[in-house]
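Ticket #4471: structure export looks truncated?
Reporter: QA, pipeline team
Priority: medium

Steps to reproduce: submit the single chain below to the structure queue and open the exported record.
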Amino acid sequence: MGLSTHVLDTMHGGPAAGMRVSLFTTDKGSATLVKSFTLNHDGRNPDGPLYDNDSLKKGTYRLVFDVKEYFAAKGVALPEPNFLDQVSLDFGVAHTDQHYHVPLLVSPWSYSTYRGS
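Actual output as written to the record:
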């Protein structure tokens, strides 16, 4: 299945529908934008996996989640500056024949991630 992501809004107890996300490839400190998208009603990329197994390459990647923008759009009163603006997750793909699922559990004040299945 390649590479996928899923975001859950732990403040409101559901998917983070409407959050903007950007995917980058990274190499020695530089990042190249692959795509940006807005999460669907289920908190996932509306186009499905970010990469399928045939397209996923061994290397390093970055997902950037626009947390501040998302919670502000939901009407959450945020301080200025907000504790979290964007959450950046840098991760590596070593085995292109495996599925790399990168979920994010997020509130305006905290986040958690792991390699899912």
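Status: closed, not a bug. The export was complete when the record was re-opened. Leaving a note from the reviewer for reference: Residues 67-73 form the longest helix (7 residues).
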